[in-house]
Amino acid sequence: MLQSELLLVSRDSQAITRYLPLLERAANFIESRRRSQEQSLLAGPGRQPAGAELRRVEAADGTYDKAYLAGLSVTYIAALDRLAEL
Questions:
Q1: 33 Cβ partners below 8 Å, 6+ apart?
Q2: Residues in contact with 58: Cβ distance below 8 Å, sequence separation at least 6, in sequence order
Q3: Could you tell me the pTM of the whole model?
Q4: Could you give the angle at the alpha carbon of 83 between the alpha carbons of 85 and 70, nearest 5°?
């Protein structure tokens, strides 16, 4: 997201030409890790309580599955928005 912001502010066409394929590649990689189009991004195991933004998913055996992080989803949406602008 930060690189996209820099490119949008600078409007440097050479830098955009250089970084746009890399940013698209990163977005495609992240998108490939989602379970389905309807679900948010899953982060690592939610073992530690991290406030209200972490939804811990406890399995029947007492371990924790991957968790949904609101901050991660919001940042990813903002990055996609800037990628679309580029």
A1: 41, 42
A2: 64, 65
A3: 0.61
A4: 120
Tens digits of per-residue pLDDT, 39-75? 666 666 554 555 544 555 667 787 766 666 666 777 8
Convert the chain into a string of H (helix), E (strand) and C (coil): CHHHHHHHHHCCHHHHHHHHHHHHHHHHHHHHCCCCCCCCCEEEECCCCCCCCEECCECCCCCECEEEEHHHHHHHHHHHHHHHHC
Instruction: Please report where in the chains the tokens 């050479």 appear, as a residue.
Output: 14
- Structure tokens, 54: 């972490």
Say what the alpha-carbon torsion angle 27, 29, 32, 64 is, to the nearest 10 degrees.
-100
Sheet of strand 54-55, all strands in order from the earlier edge strand to the far edge? 42-45, 66-69, 54-55
The β-bridge relationship of strands 66-69 and 42-45 is antiparallel
